[in-house]
Write a structure and sequence with these properties.
This protein is α/β, with parallel strands linked by helices. The protein has a single domain, classed as Aldolase class I (TIM Barrel), CATH 3.20.20. Helices cover about 40% and strands about 15% of the residues. The strands form 2 sheets. Strands 1, 2, 3, 4, 5, 6, 7, 8, 9 and 12 form a 10-stranded parallel β-sheet that branches. A two-stranded antiparallel sheet has the order 10-11. Strand 7 (about 225-230), helix 9 (about 245-260) and strand 8 (about 265) form a beta-alpha-beta unit. Helix 2 crosses helix 9 and helix 3 packs parallel to helix 4 (about 115-125). The chain is globular. The chain binds iron/sulfur cluster (SF4). Iron/sulfur cluster binds next to loops. Catalyzes the conversion of dethiobiotin (DTB) to biotin by the insertion of a sulfur atom into dethiobiotin via a radical-based mechanism. Pathway: Cofactor biosynthesis; biotin biosynthesis; biotin from 7,8-diaminononanoate: step 2/2.
Length: about 325
């Protein structure tokens, strides 16, 4: 029996490259081994994601159906009433979710009444005993502190892709803006949820670069979502090729090895995967899935909760409870 792997923040590109390019079965075997050292491999966290404000976003993320400039079929919806959001959270908890993430299609948080309402939502979900997460766009240090005081457990802000490829995907903000918000979240003592998307047209080098950025942060993000591009009609990336599931397995396994204590989330793209393919992702170290009401993940299709619970049962897995660990500065 070898010693438990250690957490490292000094990974080099060459080291990650060598892991990423291992023969696939060897890579999955290593990732599954590391996963068992750090996590209970029988547990999968079910996180529910709710869009609390949909569409009409001024940003130009080329994968996103919520950007106002693209002609998609997304129905624009103003910020939901607080009580309605809390009702969704209660239902999610009853369905087995231990984490509730609220997403608003904003470029950045503004200090206005809508933000005050989000603060109330955070307090309400926290009182339900769920991990509460938000993804609201860019955030200042002061806004992050307000969210933390309201009980926010995690803030999602994905890198999306590598620093080098970033401007091919988004022109209305920079990679440094992303890092800046993540730093503000950290400073406030909120856990970080940050990962990316594959299938945007990036190279393997870009994927490795993104993983390198995440794994060399002073503290690894506690949560690392790995998404496959959900191709939304009307967006510039609508005709991209479907992401091969083996590519997802490779990304998940590499993320698991270099960030062993993080929750690695098999996120968007599950709709195009069979249960068999999702099983491979769990074997590679994914230990969380997103679920959404009405079988959608924000604005794209997603399996429903009953289908997910059935899959977990078939694979001998069980939903994880709320984490007891808190973010350490
Ligand atoms: S990904 Fe977020 S920031 Fe980008 S267009 Fe969509 S809603 Fe706006």
């Amino acid at each position: 029996m070898t010693d438990k792997t250690v957490l490292r923040n000094d990974w080099t590109r060459e080291e990650i490259e060598a892991i990423y390019h291992l023969p696939l079965l060897e890579l999955v075997y290593k990732a599954a081994t590391v996963h068992r050292e750090w996590n209970d491999p029988e547990e999968i966290q079910i996180s529910t994601l709710l869009s609390i404000k949909t569409g009409g976003c001024p940003e130009d993320c080329s994968y996103c159906g919520q950007a106002a400039r693209y002609h998609t079929n997304i129905k624009v919806q103003a910020l939901l009433p607080t009580e309605q959001v809390l009702e969704h959270a209660r239902k999610a908890k009853e369905g087995g979710s231990s984490r509730f993430c609220m997403a608003a299609a904003w470029r950045e948080v503004r200090n206005n009444r809508d933000f005050d309402r989000v603060i109330d939502m955070v307090k309400g979900v926290n009182e339900l005993g769920m991990e509460v997460c938000c993804t609201l766009g860019m955030l200042s240090e002061e806004q992050a502190e307000r969210l933390q005081e309201a009980g926010l457990y995690a803030y999602n802000h994905n890198l999306d892709t590598s620093e080098q490829y970033y401007e091919e995907i988004i022109s209305t903000r920079t990679f440094d803006h992303r890092i800046n918000t993540i730093n503000n979240v950290r400073k406030a003592g909120i856990t970080v949820c940050s990962g990316g998307i594959i299938g945007l047209g990036e190279t393997h080098r870009d994927r490795i670069s993104m993983l390198l950025t995440l794994a060399t942060m002073p503290k690894h993000p506690e949560s690392v979502p790995i998404n496959a591009l959900a191709r939304v009609a009307g967006t510039p990336l609508q005709d991209n090729e479907k992401t091969d599931t083996w590519e997802m397995v490779r990304m998940i396994a590499t993320a698991r090895i270099i960030m062993p204590s993080s929750m690695v989330r098999l996120s968007a793209g599950r709709m195009e995967m069979s249960g068999f393919e999702q099983g491979w992702c769990f074997m590679a170290g994914a230990n969380s899935i997103f679920t959404g009401e009405r079988e959608t993940l924000l604005v794209t299709p997603n399996p429903g909760i009953s289908e997910d619970l059935q899959l977990l049962q078939t694979l001998g897995l069980k939903p994880m409870g709320r984490a007891e660990v808190s973010c350490e500065l």
